[in-house]
Fold DNA-(Apurinic or apyrimidinic site) lyase 2.
Amino acid sequence: MLDEVTAIVDGYNAYFSFSKVKTGYSGVATFCRDAVTPIAAEEGLSAVLTPQPSIGSYGGNADFTPEELEALDAEGRAILTEHRLTDGKSVVIINLYCPRADKENKERVDYKLRFYKLLQERAEALVEGGRHVVVLGDINTSHKMIDHCEPDKEELFNANPGRQWLNQFLVPGEVSSTKPVDETREPLQATRDETRELLQATRDETREQRQATRDETRESRQATRDETRESRHATHSETGEPLQAQGGYL
């Protein structure tokens, strides 16, 4: 359970959804400044947890049974808040913690994909109802290979069903109002490549400078030794006496 200091923050309204099937397992929270207090808030993507709908626009849910809707909203994975904009319209923030599923676990993979389907149905219904929609949080699917720390081979990577869903969900002009990811990936990658090359060039230059300094120091020391040796030899030749050093003969 959250302590009072964490749950109640001065100057903010807080909205929570906790897992109803396993404690400490999952959940989301949205903190809204008092200046942007929501005009409505709901827990879950369906109407199951909202006896008196305030945001509405749930979609038909024709492909879901009541039991499935209850199961999809039972893990505390979605909070929706609606905020009034200055132009009189409203924006609905869908804050998510989407399910994670190992590909070997078919039951959880199916659960994850059904959650995605319900999310898309709700988002599209809200857009059709005249709202702006912002989907944020942990989608639990990396979109492109560059987003993944250890991607599979490209063919296997792109075959992931969650990734295929995300690709069609992020179609400009439908649900997502952001630019297609591909439009920014190449410039971003080019910038990373340039930075990497610059850093490597700097390392190489520093390495060369250090080596040059070592060589100069080595040559200087050798020249000093040679000069000292020649000076001692010249002194010995002039006097005919063995050269003495502190503590004995050289």
Q: What stands out?
A: Residues 181-239 form the longest helix (59 residues). Residues 173-185 have pLDDT under 50 and may be disordered. Residues 158 and 218 are 57 Å apart (CA to CA).
